[in-house]
Predict the 3D structure of the following.
Amino acid sequence: MDKMKLIESQYLKKDVPKFNVGDTLKVLVKIPEGPDKVRLHPFEGVVIAKNGSGVRESFTLRKVSYGEGIERVFPLYSPSIERIELIRSGKVKRAKLYYLRSKIGKRATKIETREEKAA
């Protein structure tokens, strides 16, 4: 086996839920507050993009906070991520949801869920 794949396989063992673009996630990020103290900070938003593969995979979350849009790129297998929770799965027809940047209010966060579309 290739040495790079052997090293990468150790990082891929982290339990990560399956999610796609359009899903709403809550990512709990470790924030150091002192030499031996760590706090968990939640970041909840809609997945607007996924990039890369394997260990180098990353995803972009977007949320609107106090009327200002915030986007944050997370490496999927980062040690600073405590856990990822799937809040809602959405049904979209695009691989990248950059058009949400121009939407305001509910239109920016309201994405049809897969269950709504089936009914």
